[in-house]
Amino acid sequence: MQIFQQQVANTVAGFLLDCQAVKFNLEQPYTWASGWKSPIYTDNRVTLSFPQVRTYIKNQLVSLIINNFPTVDCIAGVATGGIPQGALTADEIGVSFVYVRAEPKGHGLRNLIEGHIQEGQKVVVVEDLISTGKSSLRAVEALQEGGAEVLGMVSVFTYGFPEAWESFDKAGIKCFPLTDYLSLISIALQKGIIKEQDVNALEQWRKNPSKW
User: Fold this and answer.
1) Per-residue pLDDT averaged across 22-46, rounded?
2) Coil, helix or strand for 192?
3) Which of 41, 133, 162, 175 is an S-S bond match for 30, by CB 3.0 to 4.6 Å?
4) pTM, entire model
5) So where are the chain's domains?
6) Which CATH class name applies to 6-211?
């Protein structure tokens, strides 16, 4: 994984905090679907309700894609949070758009990919959030099985878990997040949302979240 310009990373982190897309609670941790206990909860879909934030994120995702994957001719959003971000981005670039379901549709054609993919089409995957990377790579595999050439991935935010980095490297997928966990912690500290004594605990959680 590679992080975009630090100024952009800090700005996006600030926006996530200001619109409360990210919340911290070390005393009463949140429980993820995986069962992990987490001192942080992230829902980047909240950013869609704020035009200034939504537009900034869209424009920065567009810049990431154009600069790193200039031959793109299709954007694929990953359900659910990557769908609106991907659609906004595809519209701005002027390329086609599809989205990838978490599971095949339970009726009709039982589609996993919604939209039209052509054989050999050059696709960039858009995620709003990357944690372990498992759902992101399932989407990549579905697109590849559908005949697409996946150029890489962009996302609004990543926790930067080591296992995600390793999985993306192993799959040969380049991923460019706008901001990451460490940038978020730094800006949260500057804004007084967390205290200096919280930083070590938050960093230790990221290193081994399943044991926290």
Assistant:
1) 91
2) coil
3) 41
4) 0.92
5) 6-211
6) alpha beta
